[in-house]
Every structure is written in structure tokens, then in C-alpha cells.
Design goal:
2 copies of one chain form a homodimer.
Chain A (H helix, E strand, L loop, with lengths): L1 H15 L3 H15 L2 H13 L7 H15 L5 E13 L5 E7 L2 E4 L2 E3 L11 E8 L4 H10 L3 E4 L10 H6 L2 H12 L5 E5 L27 E4 L1 H13 L4 E5 L3 E15 L4 E11 L9 H20 L6 E8 L7 H12 L3 E7 L7 E7 L2 H8 L2 H4 L6 E4 L15 E7 L4 H4 L12 H21 L1
Parallel strand pairs in A: 5-6, 6-7, 7-8, 11-12, 11-13, 13-16, 14-15
Antiparallel strand pairs in A: 1-10, 2-3, 2-9, 4-8, 5-9, 10-12, 14-16
Chain lengths: ~450, ~450
């Protein structure tokens, strides 16, 4: 009993020595680590629902589940915002092989890229031309490309510390590779997976034909990094080998879906809105735990953590779970469109869409004055090992809101492992660490608290 | 060709704008990420050799392998430093269950703690007294402890950001629990595993009887966190349930082993020694990839990275792979003893023994002047997201060297996942990320370079 009294006194003293902001951040992080709702939500979303490609049944189940969870939080308002989304379906599992001579084949793992057309029903077999990027096509010319499969094989640059930079340096091959190769008469496109390690998992992702007429569209698939190495090696030995692949994916008509939204009304400035969000849709190969189930549950946690630590925001705080980031951005665009129609004033938007790994800080799209203000908060974050406050890209779903003095921010988790899982079959719940996920949620809540108080 | 020329010019320009230190750090990180020998060494150590408990055949195989690898690096000298080590063996797999009534049993996962005695051959069955720590024993007194199994169940504190702090707040139960409980006549000891999550893996680790006479020594085992929760829950329902466990571990006579050492002779001050190291022994349940295979291969990488980026240290740079950190620290003590005998002047020692996760920085045991100097280097580390330069504990193996102006440092990787694996069956190679491991090696090499140049 004496010991208890001593501990209470000690605790009072410690708290007494802290500023109100220090106390609030400590309360947020304690709550996030000791009572981890986000991790439970993510478990359900990942394991009980699973992959959530836009337009799929699972995406709709996710909408229902997340709405129910938001309802249970006692917010001031929860609603669904209708948005029409594209519906692309993979069809039966893809097949691919390298044929060194008739009948001598090596299977390799591929997956159709999102938005791609199918191959002919019997598959597509053609000779291959390997390139290091879009810019190689013109040099080769139609003569060396026509009728062939263009194999884009520029790897991610491993010596970049921020792996998203390495991704940015390669992703044009995936997004625009088919469109550009088609202009030279290519029969199809195979793209090296956007992955920094060698493994057997093909990584999906969006591609676009732009305004290419339907009859000129050629099928596009990603090949695993090991498969790409094998294919490249075999081409060195014999440039005339064949590559075969078959996929029967297709684009269906748009379907109805929803952004899932919840809000706490601001106590002083209800007309000023702060948004935290992630995207609810995912690719279809894994369960989308990192991309972006993590961002969704972290964003929901922001509202819960602030509520349960007794902080009532002055401004209206809204969580938005955007639909269709992966292959259309319809949810992000719709949210911004409705906000403009209703003449809502958005002052702050924060997105988490870089995985549920240990948070390191934020990238910010902001004015100089806002940046100065935020840098003042660095010492408050130090006890939580949050050190990165850097100007840079925030997040795809919130960027359609951009304009005026709107402060945009993106959570930056440690990025070293992200592309081992990104858009692949191993983006699954067991690769999310509970503490890392919850630290991200707390870090977001801490920033929202400070922005609401001081901006 | 024109493009190549342009890139060369661009590169020259960029390099021209950098200081020599910036260039050297960039070269170190590039090398570490693009040509990752450390990861290959760790693969062999983990998968081809495996667990390396002191005194085991595997520990000797690891000595031989690592020596060969050091030989292949073209260092100035590689040698083995003899050291006698304890040999404790686990024996046949442990068995444990909770008995709620005669014949009604629930198996639970346990493992004998390192250094523990065996139970009687038929096992030990007794009633249980649950405590929250050593300090509870006196309050209970002999009457409530005698003949019972003491169950230490204080969990790691989940709201601490640095998980090593949470470990430090619990580990006395494991290390001293049996010694203290024996003084009150306990029959045995069961300790909650030092793990921040709930799972089914018991975590090994060292315990000590101190100077307790042999006949008073009681068996001690760790129970998985799920097992601890189950046992605690059942005790709430019925405090008189029995716990049974059986283990036939034992302590054999000391055996000959070795520290593995390699060095590059200093170009200007060969008499001044800098040490980088980790420990080569591990617990016997996993393969010791994080604890501390990672630290060993990172330390070897330091010498390789400096050599292959063309840096010749002014002082003698030595890698030491210490034997027997886990259950005796004989290697660390022997190395310091020999250094004193030979009157070697050590100026810097750096240890990596906190897992192969993304590096965040260093803890330092240093003078005020040294600390000021090191803080000046922070901007050089910023591009690599290294931000933590904090005074604090360095590492167990290098601390016996402590004295005078010796600068001691410990690599601090992100600690969130460490205790999911620490001393357990899942401390295995597949849980080490290549990039994270190699970034740690580069960060160590960068610090060694700066210390050599400016200290």
C-alpha cells in the first residue's frame, strides 16, 4: 500500500513536470500500445475479408465492416459516400513459360497487370526483346519490336535509401510500357516486378493504355524478379527464344461503391475540416494488409485515440477510407469533388499509404510558415523516435483536395521491407507487426492534435 | 553513348559538390546495399550451421567458418583467441502441463533456462504461487512458498518505445528468480517469457544461482506468454491446481573455444586499436540470426566495406567475434584480459548486438568531448535516416574493455520486433531483411571511418 502511494506520488510528480502537449502525446502513445484496436480491425479486414479489389464482393464487405466499426466508436456522424468504380477482373490464374526450343519450357510466375486486356484464348507466344525502359523503344524502332513481346527489365535501384524513390524510378515501365510498346507494333509486354529482392512473386499494379484505340491494346503482365533474371539470362544465351503467356483478365462496366466516412464535429470551428485517411481497396493477390489496410485502421485509430484520451478537436475531424486508389483514384477524386460542391473548407489532410511499418515521420506539402511551425514540434516527437519532417509528396487520395493553404501530409514509415510485399501475394496480415502499426497510428494522432491546436 | 557521357558528367558534378566525408559515406552505403556479403555470410551461419550454443559442435563449426571468411578478406592478420567456455546442454525436449484435477491436463510450451539444473527424472509436480517479481517473495514468506513452484509473471511493459527498456524491467525474474525463490524453499521456478506479444514460443536465456550451494538449486524454465496467460487464468479460478514440468538439462565441464579475430594494421598509429564486434554464440532454439549472427556479419562487413571503398584506417581496426556472450561472457572477458596483459591501447569499441533491423543510430559511453564531436557528424548521417546519438549502454562483450578515455558504442537498430524473436525458436534467417541488415553494417562502417579520422 505504501509502495502504491509512493508510485502515485512519483507519477504525479513526473506528470507535473511535463507540458500539456507532452502529456497528451504520452497519453496517445500509451493508449495506442496498450489498447490496440487498429490491429484487431486489421486482422478482421485481412483474414476474415481478404483482398479488396475495387468492384469486388470483398470490397463491398469491407465497406460494410468498416462502417460498422466506425459506428461503434460513438462519432458524431458516419456515412457512405457513393462513387462509381472500375471493375477489372483477373480471371483464371495466368500461365507463362520460356520456350528455349519446341517442347523445352520453363514455367515462370507472372500476373496480369491491372487494366490489361487478355491474351488470345490460347495464349500468346512470341520472340522477346529486352529493354531497360521506355526510352529504348525509339532506338530499337518498329523493325525490332513488331510482333515481339517487349520485356522491360530495369530493376529498382538498390542503393537508394528511400525505397519509394527506387519505385518511382521504375514504375513508368509498368504503367506506360504496354501503351508505348504497342505504338511500335509489339505483341505484348512483360514487366519486371517492382521488388528489391529476388523472389518468385509477381507484383501486380495498375497500367494504362491512355487513349490507345481498343484494337491496338496489347496484353501486359508482371514477371517475378527471379523469373526476370532467368528470362534475361536465357536471352543472353539465345536471343531467339520464345515467351508464352496466357491471361484472361478483363474490364467490366463500372459498379457502385463507396468511400466510408466518419467524423467528430469541431468544438470551435465545425466548418473547418481535417481529414485522415487511407484507401480501403487493395490488389487481389494478397490481403492488402500493408497496402492499405494498415492506413485505414491507423486513420480510424486517430479518432479513437483522441477521443479516448479526452481530446475534443476544435475543428471537424474526419476519417475517410477511400475506395479505388489502386486502379482509378475514383474515391479520392469523388471526395474532393463533393467537398468543392459543398464548399467545405479543408485545412489539413493526412494520409497513411506506405505500409504499417515503424513510423519515421512525415512528408509535407505546405507553405513555408506551416513548415516552420511543424519543425517546432520535433522535440515533442523525439521520445517516440519520430525524426523525419521533410517536404515532399503526401498521398494519392488526398491530393485532389490540394489548393490554397491546405496542409497535406503523408505518414512515412520505414520503407526497407515495403516492396518485398507491395501488390504481391505476401502482402498479408502476418507481415504486419502490432507495435509498428500502432506506433504509426499514435504518430498520426499526435500530428492531428498539434495541427488542430496550433495551426 | 552520349547518354553515358552525360551521366558520367552529371555524376562527376554531383560528387564534386560533396565533401570527402559525404563521398566516403555514400560509397560505404552503396557498397553495402549493392554487394551484400554480410547477408550471404549470415545465410550460411544460420542455415548451414544453425544454433551455436557455447561449447557445442555448431559453435566450433561457426568458429571455423567465420575464420575462413575472414581469411578470404585479405586482412593483415586473422587468428583465434583461445577461451574456456561453459557447456550447458538442454537434453531431451522439455514437457510441461497444468493439472486442474487428477488426469485433467493442459500442455504448455516451456524451455529450461540456461544454467538451470534438471528436474527429478520423473519430473516435478507441485502447487503454484504466482508473483509479479522478486520483491513479492519476502511478503509471501517461506510459509506460502515452500514446496511450491514460483511463477514469475510480470510482463514486459508494452508502452515503452524502446523495447530493451521493457526487457530490462523484467529480466531479473529470469536471471535471479530461481536463486531467490530457493531461499524460501520453492521447489522450482517458471518464468513468463520476455516477449511483448502473446504467442506459443518459450524464450530461453541465462539464469544464475549465484553462490547457492548445489543441493539448494531448483529447476527453472521459461513458459510462453500464451502459456503464462493460461496458467494465470487457471490460478484465478483455482489457486490449488498443480503444475508439472520435466527437463534433463545439465552443466558439463568447461570446454575449449575461441574468439575469432581479424585485423587491418593501422597506417599511422598501429598501436592504437579500434574494435568492432558481435557475439558468435547463440541460444539453441532458433539459429541465432538476429542474436547475434547479424552483429557478427555486420562487424565483418565494416572491415570489408572500408577496404573495398579504398579507406585505409590510421589506427588498427579489429573485428572480434566474441564467444559465449549468452551464458558466461567468457569471450568478452578474455579479450579484455589479453588486451591488458599485452598493454594494448584501445581507443574505440563498437558492438552490434540488438538485432539486424533498420539502424536508427548509436548509444555511446563516452566523455563529454567525445559526445560533442560525434554530434557534429549528425548531418552526415541524415541522408541514411540515422538520427539517434544518445548516451547509454554500449554492449556486453566490449564493456570489459571499459576504462580511461575509451569510446564505447552500440548500434541501435529499430527495436520493435526484436523481442518477438529473442532467444526463441523463431530467431531465424528468414526474419532478417537483407537491406536492414546491410544498412546496419554501413552505419557501423561510417562511424568507424569518422572516429578513425577525427577522434
Amino acid at each position: 500500500m505504501k509502495k502504491l502511494l509512493f508510485l502515485v506520488l512519483l507519477f504525479s510528480f513526473c506528470v507535473y513536470g511535463q507540458t500539456e502537449d507532452e502529456k497528451q502525446l504520452r497519453a496517445i502513445y500509451d493508449k495506442a500500445l496498450l489498447d490496440a484496436r487498429g490491429y484487431d480491425w486489421l486482422e478482421h479486414l485481412s483474414n476474415q475479408i481478404g483482398p479488396r479489389l475495387s468492384g469486388s464482393l470483398n470490397a463491398e464487405r469491407a465497406v460494410t465492416y468498416m462502417r460498422e466499426q466506425l459506428d461503434s466508436l460513438g462519432l458524431d456522424r458516419v456515412w457512405l459516400q457513393p462513387v462509381m468504380v472500375p471493375k477489372w477482373v483477373r480471371g483464371i490464374p495466368e500461365v507463362a513459360y520460356i520456350e528455349t526450343s519446341p517442347g523445352m519450357t520453363n514455367n515462370v510466375p507472372i500476373c496480369a497487370l491491372g487494366g490489361s486486356v487478355a491474351t488470345p484464348a490460347g495464349g500468346l507466344k512470341a520472340k522477346v526483346v529486352e529493354v531497360q525502359g521506355l526510352e529504348d523503344l525509339a532506338a530499337l524502332g518498329r523493325e525490332k519490336i513488331e510482333g515481339r513481346i517487349v520485356f522491360y527489365n530495369r530493376p529498382m535501384q538498390a542503393n537508394l535509401i528511400e525505397t519509394f524513390e527506387a519505385y518511382g524510378g521504375c514504375v513508368d515501365q509498368r504503367y506506360s510500357g504496354a501503351r508505348e510498346a504497342a505504338k511500335y507494333g509489339a505483341a505484348g509486354v512483360i514487366v519486371r516486378s517492382m521488388n528489391l529482392r529476388l523472389d518468385d512473386l509477381p507484383h501486380a499494379g495498375a497500367m494504362s493504355y491512355g487513349d490507345l484505340p481498343a484494337e491496338q491494346r496489347i496484353p501486359a503482365a508482371a514477371i517475378s524478379t527471379n523469373g526476370a533474371e532467368l528470362l534475361s539470362g536465357m536471352l543472353t544465351l539465345n536471343p531467339e527464344i520464345n515467351f508464352y503467356f496466357k491471361q484472361n483478365c478483363r474490364q467490366l462496366a463500372d459498379v457502385q461503391s463507396y468511400n466510408v466516412i466518419g467524423e467528430i464535429k469541431g468544438s470551435e470551428h465545425p466548418g473547418e475540416v481535417m481529414v485522415v485517411g487511407g484507401h480501403l481497396d487493395s490488389w487481389d493477390l494478397g490481403d492488402g494488409a500493408h497496402d492499405d489496410g494498415a492506413g485505414c485502421v491507423q486513420s480510424m485509430e486517430v479518432l479513437r485515440l483522441l477521443r479516448e484520451t479526452g481530446y475534443r478537436p476544435k475543428r471537424t475531424l474526419r476519417v475517410v477510407l477511400f475506395m479505388n486508389e489502386e486502379n482509378g483514384l475514383r474515391g479520392g477524386n469523388k471526395y474532393a469533388e463533393v467537398a468543392r460542391e459543398k464548399n467545405e473548407k479543408h485545412v489539413f489532410a493526412l494520409e497513411s499509404d506506405a505500409g504499417g511499418f515503424t513510423p519515421r515521420g512525415f512528408t509535407l506539402e505546405c507553405t513555408d510558415e506551416q513548415y516552420e511551425l511543424i519543425l517546432n514540434w520535433k522535440p515533442l516527437f523525439e521520445p517516440y523516435l519520430i525524426h523525419l519532417f521533410q517536404r515532399g509528396y503526401s498521398g494519392a487520395d488526398i491530393r485532389p483536395l490540394k489548393g490554397g493553404d491546405l496542409l497535406l501530409a503523408g505518414l512515412r514509415p520505414d520503407s526497407q521491407r515495403y516492396f518485398d510485399h507491395h501488390h504481391a501475394a505476401n502482402d498479408t496480415f502476418e507481415h504486419v507487426n502490432k507495435r509498428e502499426l500502432q506506433l504509426g497510428a499514435a504518430t498520426m494522432a499526435a500530428l492531428v492534435y498539434l495541427v488542430d491546436k496550433y495551426l
